[in-house]
């Protein structure tokens, strides 16, 4: 009731208060840093290994399992999942928030280098990739029509 009474009896005062809040909001917004793609370190690392000509069972036993065993003791590791397909092994590692992903990736590379002897000779070298949100497109455009 108090605000309603003041608004009715003193409309100029309320108008000035609202204008002051708008000006303060605009000033604050102009001082606030904003980026189109802010730097966000996602605690995820993927390991992709190609083994041409091998089936999913072979990939799982000869490639995926040895890689999981090698990198499973990495510090701050929260979860590890893997997928074995025809000729391809993908191991996805999730780390605790706040983990330095660069250090974790270097640790994973070191462990993979030490375990390289357990992988088949025909398998390609494992590729370690950090999740990078800036590598994703901001906008995707799709066109559809008849030819």
Notes on the protein architecture:
The chain is an alpha+beta fold and 147 residues long. It has 2 domains: 2-31, no CATH class; 41-135, Alpha-Beta Plaits (2-Layer Sandwich). Helix content is 40%, strand content 22%. The chain contains 4 helices and 4 strands. It has helices at 2-9, 11-31, 56-71, 101-114; strands at residues 41-50, 77-85, 88-95, 127-132. The chain has a 4-stranded antiparallel beta sheet, with helices on one face. The protein starts with a helix and ends in a 15-residue tail after the last strand.
How would you state the average pLDDT, rounded? 89
What spatial order of strands do you see in the largest sheet? 2-3-1-4
Q: Sheet with the most strands?
A: 4 strands, antiparallel
The percent of residues in helical segments reads 40-55%
List the domain count as a whole number: 2
N- and C-termini, Cα separation = 67 Å
State the CATH architecture of the largest domain: 2-Layer Sandwich
Question: CATH topology of the largest domain, anyone?
Answer: Alpha-Beta Plaits
- The count of strands amounts to 4
> What kind of oligomer do you see?
single chain
> What is the molecular shape?
elongated
Beta content: 15-25%
Query: How large, in whole angstroms, is the Cα Rg?
Result: 27 Å
**CATH superfamily heading of the largest domain:** Multidrug efflux transporter AcrB pore domain
H/E order of the elements?
HHEHEEHE
Uncertain stretches:
none
Main attributes of the structure:
single chain, 147 residues, alpha+beta, Alpha-Beta Plaits, 4-stranded antiparallel sheet, elongated
């Amino acid at each position: 009731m108090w605000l309603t009474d003041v608004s009715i009896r003193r409309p100029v005062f309320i108008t000035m208060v609202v204008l002051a809040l708008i000006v303060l909001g605009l000033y604050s917004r102009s001082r606030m840093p904003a980026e189109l793609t802010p730097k966000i370190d996602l605690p995820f690392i993927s390991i992709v290994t190609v083994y041409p000509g091998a089936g999913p069972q072979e990939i799982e036993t000869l490639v995926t399992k040895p890689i999981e065993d090698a990198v499973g003791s990495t510090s701050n590791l929260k979860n590890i999942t893997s997928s074995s397909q025809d000729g391809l092994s993908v191991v996805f590692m999730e780390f605790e928030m706040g983990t330095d992903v660069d250090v974790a990736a270097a640790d994973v590379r070191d462990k993979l280098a030490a375990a390289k002897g357990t992988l088949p000779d025909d398998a390609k070298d494992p590729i370690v990739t950090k999740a990078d949100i800036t590598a994703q497109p901001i906008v995707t455009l799709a066109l559809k029509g008849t030819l």
